[in-house]
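Can't attach files on this board, so I'm pasting raw text. These are the components:
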Amino acid sequence: MITLCTSNNCESTQTAPTILMVERGTTIYSEGDTANFWYEVSAGTVRTCRYLANGQRHLTGFYYPEDAFGLDLEVYRETAESVSDVVLSRHPTRADRDIAHARDGMLEKAWEQARERIFLFGHKTAANRVAAFILEVGERTHASGLELPMSRSDIADYLNLTLHTVSRTISDFARKDLISLNGPQNIRIVDIDGLRAVAGDQHEAPNYSYASSHTDFPWPTV
Amino acid sequence: MITLCTSNNCESTQTAPTILMVERGTTIYSEGDTANFWYEVSAGTVRTCRYLANGQRHLTGFYYPEDAFGLDLEVYRETAESVSDVVLSRHPTRADRDIAHARDGMLEKAWEQARERIFLFGHKTAANRVAAFILEVGERTHASGLELPMSRSDIADYLNLTLHTVSRTISDFARKDLISLNGPQNIRIVDIDGLRAVAGDQHEAPNYSYASSHTDFPWPTV
DNA sequence: CGTCTCCTTGAAAGCGTTCAATTACAGTGG
DNA sequence: CCACTGTAATTGAACGCTTTCAAGGAGACG
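---
Top answer:
Structure tokens for the assembled complex are below.
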């Protein structure tokens, strides 16, 4: 269910965003819909995905507060759904110049994130991917307790694994004291360096490298 | 080796592109370089990639004539290399408004392609990915004979497979008369519907669907 | 004709998927 | 308060696909 909260205080200009309250598990827009709006997450988590003809689902992204999604121009190329209860601000796709510029910045960021995500698939083993994912969520949500909003199934579809493998891998991490679990959703990172070593995503970045204390990799990264 | 061919005929304005001739196997720019230019392919094929600390390589994209790459604003986030001999037109990253608008269009396209590529990883088996890749190259280069410019190793790094698996899979396709081979690089698509069935990438697209005559999938798509 | 690079192919091992069963937990109604 | 129900997560075992290790072949070039 989607609740509209029109912000009628601000003498609404043409380009004023609309605030939306969205219940968890709601479809925000569907693949193929005409792209009249783009969105910014204020609270909660959103996922974008595609459904294959054989019923398989493939997640293309997770969006946390301050992230933008639905930047398509003509038609949405993927479906957007709320992972949790969500608050959104909705912007008309075609607006005046300043807004358009803001949108371009968002687009740039979206492209960068897409590339990061492609890069994530460079991690071959399940341990690689899940570790990288946990670190990514930790950074993007910058929450202390790291409450995972999405299900194991969501993570699996995001990383191209099965929910079983994801579950097994996370259990392994807990067993090896890389993380600790308080219920399935509440993950706390215990050994962040160890987790980075498992992720093994230190690419040779000449300038903006994030250094690691580990020179050898206990887990296979190929 | 890179040869500069300054176009001095056109009373060069500030925003005039420079034409470059680049030999195969040349690094066009490296990850971490300041992003002073973005590029458009006139002829040949370019690959972008990242090198991991452990020596592993991960390809993030292939670029064919009319494709743009290197759209980063501050710093290049990946390395660009020529797969074959290449002709490029090079544009300054910060130029006047009209050019900037053209660049935004390119950015939009780059983002779309990144999403397509993420989607490509939704194909789990090697057969899925390689078939989808061949179809993609066929469409993007729209060449009759389909001369693959890149090596098996390049394809492998692009699809997150080993070059052995790629080679085996392509051989299988030839054996099953989906394609025919005249040497390793020269692929001709024989049974495009069969190939699409193997790729299994028909996602439920309500509006802009590319229909398939196949309702069942002889190859596992999960 | 040797060397180099790239591609192909075989066999065994490793890892994620699949099939199957169990557990945990929130919500609901008796 | 407790059984019932449905959803989500965990775990085990066997299978299958990709990787790994290893060898051989094809073509370009000097």
